[in-house]
Amino acid sequence: MKKKGIRFYFTIITIRIASKLMKLMGKNATHLPGWIANKMCPNFLQYMEKPEKLFYITGTNGKTTVSNIIADALKLNGYDFVNNAEGSNLNSGIITALLPRTTNGGKSKCKLAIMEVDERYSPKIFPYMAPDYLVCTNLFRDSCKRNGHAEFIRDILDSQIPAHTKMILNGEDLISNHLAWGNDRTYFGINCEDGHSTPDNIIKDIVACPKCGSKLDFEYIRYHHIGKGNCPNCDFGSPELDYKVNAIDYDKGYCTVETPKGSYDLKLIGNNVTDIYNMITAVAILTEIGLSNEEIIKSFDVAKLEATRFASEMVCGKEVIMQLAKGQNPIACSRVCDFIRHEKGDKVILLVEDDYYAMKDSSENIQWIFDIDWEFLKDDSIKQIVIGGVRHKDFELRLLMAGIEPSKMVCCEHEVDVAKYADLSLGEKFYILYNVYTIDDANVVHDSLVELLKNGGNV
Amino acid sequence: MIIEVLYPEFCNLYAETSNTRYLQCCLPEAEFVFTEYNDEPAFLTKKVNLIYLGAMTEHSQEMIIKKLMQYKDRIIELIEEDVPILATGNALELFGEYIQNEDGSKVEALGIFNYWAKRDMMNRFNCLMMGKFEDMTILGFKTQFTFAYSDDFKYPFIDVEKGTGMNPDCNTEGVRYHNFYGTYLVGPFLVLNPHFTEYLLKKMGVDNPSLAFSDVIYEAYDRRLKEFINPETKYY
């Protein structure tokens, strides 16, 4: 923690007043106080005392879900902690989250902090408040406009991680599990058949050894580049797992995990292999925090995925599923396509995926649409795909390239209209796939669909 | 007809694999050769109708330059013989003189064309771009860490009408020499530009080319063109 000057004290008082005023006005003070703090006192974080034990959770996919599981488990078991679940995962969000648990003198009033961190923002966070533990769920290509490519993000993280930070890493991700190679580290992963392996994704972000350039030999691939691989010509390869899932029973809804503190069964939070990864990541973190096996088991007995990411309900005998498929993120969308094809029953898919911000005043960069494995929807169980929004012709073209029959597709100009075009007789399950920024439109679609189902197809 | 895709395991960023996947839809009878890093390129021993190279990471650029350097003379011959070559995204940089890092160090490139690229890894550049190539309006997106510079871009590909060319002070985009077409535009480039794709198919030797899903790809293009022409549309 850097020595403070008058500027710091003036700033902390100001942002406390600003936070209170915002709350009085009914505004969410989740980002702005931190933003103001940085404007008034650059790199404000460096003047705040670090909580005794500080975990950062980063990675391309899963960091929010893992952070939520951790927060729920800590609350359930009565731990005192601070996190940024209510705010942003940027430096301003971390300042905002820590502020109520920091004295006016900058001293920390909490022992444990669990902060989700945008991987791109590590240079604005790590040098000013270094983590004791860094968790990386995985690294994949993400929004090209922001993140470039996975190697770039790996290099950014690698340049920022302090030598004393303990790494908690995905043992089956050859990009992220070599981060901070000299640091103390522990690995999590799946050590058994997951039943949903997908070796045929379009995107594979690591295929060659970064040390010698040789093509990697993969013993297995679960999805994209996640799996177990080794270089045939040097020592680069997948590590042994410390926290591992040894068995998964989707029908009975549990998995068996093995940790350095023993083995036990956990209730599944979902049927997707990424849910299993999120679970074992959370198990590793909770164990490192110091929770007992019993406390962890109890936490998973009641754990649920956040409703804004996945929600399902039965309406007149049909299942309506709201499923987040993050726009600009081809990996997340491909995982959703893969998940849907493995679900039982006849399905209708409603796409509400246009980029809200690009739609407002620009033209969306569509490359991410073409990196998604839409081929997975070329399946007899997918009966209809309704595409809504200004980009519907681009989606239609990509789906045609994927071999989807034209007769299965319906396009419409306005995203909120997709429910009207859904053939209710075709599906047992109706998936509404939406973007982070189209959730309002997706809710309109959801309500229209539910109304149609209740009225037997009549509005 | 042979289409050679160079190093697809590396040159696959920004959905650029869709350029070849779309060509596969257009040319179902053609042979697509996917040459991996340790393979000998088909263009050394066979007559190829198109060589394609897509966007890649900076580390991959350096590896692939080393690999292609041994074939440099043959690549120059192929260009002079009018063999179509398409390089999209930062694949374009491999054919220039060098790539300069922020610290001033340089990665020597193939040196076939007289431009060089400058990396700025902490400042990613994104924009829309619209321009003219012959009578075609070319549309595309830029998403890159670099700009290219030259004392004299001798062989411009596209005259930029809106957006940024090879660098912020340059009003041309890419390189076109004989049938070599290099551009920073991604998107995927061929999917975004059906008129150019038809033109390229002709250059590849396809008589009366017909595009796959023609109605849909042209409708998507026309819709995008309207957006790009709209004065309200933000390019940055």
Sum up the structure in keywords.
heterodimer, A: 459 residues, alpha/beta, UDP-N-acetylmuramoyl-L-alanine:D-glutamate ligase, Protein-Tyrosine Phosphatase, Chain A, nine-stranded mixed sheet, six-stranded mixed sheet, 33% helix, 21% strand, B: 236 residues, Rossmann fold, four-stranded mixed sheet, 6 helices, 13 strands, 28% strand
What would you note in describing this structure?
The complex is a heterodimer of chains A (459) and B (236). Chain A has 15 helices and 17 strands. Chain A has 459 residues and is of the alpha/beta class. Chain A has 2 domains: 6-302, Mur-like, catalytic domain (UDP-N-acetylmuramoyl-L-alanine:D-glutamate ligase, 3-Layer(aba) Sandwich); 310-454, Protein-Tyrosine Phosphatase, Chain A (Alpha-Beta Complex), CATH 3.90.190.20. The longest helix of chain A is centred in the first third of the chain and has 19 residues, at 6-24. Chain A starts with 5 loop residues before the first helix and ends in a 5-residue tail after the last helix. In chain A, 49% of the residues are buried. The mean pLDDT of chain A is 93. Chain B is α/β, with parallel strands linked by helices and 236 residues long. Chain B has a single domain, classed as Rossmann fold. Chain B has 6 helices and 13 strands. In chain B, the strands form 2 sheets. A 9-stranded mixed beta sheet of chain B has the order 2-1-3-4-13-12-11-8-9, covered by helices on one side. In chain B, a hairpin with a 5-residue loop joins strand 5 (98-100) and strand 6.
